[in-house]
Amino acid sequence: MEQLLLVQPERMLKFELENNQYVARIILQNVSAIFVAFKVRLSNQNDYSVKPNIGVLRAGNSVTLLLTTDNAININVDRVQILAGPISNNEDVIQYFKKQLRLNQRILKCSIGDTSSLSSTIYKSSISPQEINDFKTTTIKTEYVKPQKKQSATKEDGLSLEEQIKLISEDLKLIKEKQNDGKITVGIKQFLISIFISMIVGVYITYR
What is the maximum alpha-carbon separation in the chain? Predict the structure, then answer.
């Protein structure tokens, strides 16, 4: 390949971390007096992006290939193959590499420039064992709250249910007598009776 293309770097392709991606660059320069076709292949093609990965260089021209990957685990074992051969001016480069059998090639070994960034990105945990041990168990204390005794709805706390009903009955009897005397109208009577009925219901609910 030396008589057609000058490849930089020559043997070892170093990937550096840039913007959360591992990036490497290859410079190809046509050092011949003819058109030269080139194509880039990788041993792990699915994990890499190469731009451009195929093309034609005029005599004296050069191109920079940009290789990127998100998977840094296998970079140190991957390889880059650069194929090159003479091509005519009007020939299709894709068809050229499909039918061409005799090509020059260069193999570059891949490596990671900063191994510490790899370990910190992939293998290093953000929480140390000491931090995990520092978590403490919190005991939640539950207390029994004794329900308060219902307050009596009557004014006289010492009277039993039967005694209070008896007093209400006597009041109703008194109202009836006053009505007969003409001292209480029918409307007022109905109002007072409804009040006493409500009192009876309230007393019953309290002592139930």
Answer: 139
Element (H, E) at 130: helix 129-133
Strands (E), the chain: 5-8, 12-18, 21-30, 36-42, 49-51, 54-57, 62-69, 79-86, 104-112
**What pTM was computed for the model?**
0.54
> Beta strand pairing status for 79-86 and 36-42?
antiparallel
Report how far Cα 46 is from the mean position of its chain's Cα atoms: 26
Query: What's the DSSP call for residue 122?
Result: I
Residue 11 CB partners (closer than 8 Å, separation 6+): 108, 109
Please give the chain's pLDDT, 208 residues, in tens: 457 999 999 999 999 999 999 999 999 999 999 999 999 999 988 999 999 999 999 999 999 999 999 988 889 999 999 999 999 988 999 999 998 778 999 999 999 976 554 444 443 333 333 333 333 433 444 455 555 555 544 444 456 667 777 777 777 777 777 666 665 555 665 666 677 677 776 656 665 5
**Peptide bond before residue 52 is cis, with ω within 30 degrees of 0:** yes
Helix (H) or strand (E) holding 115: helix 115-118
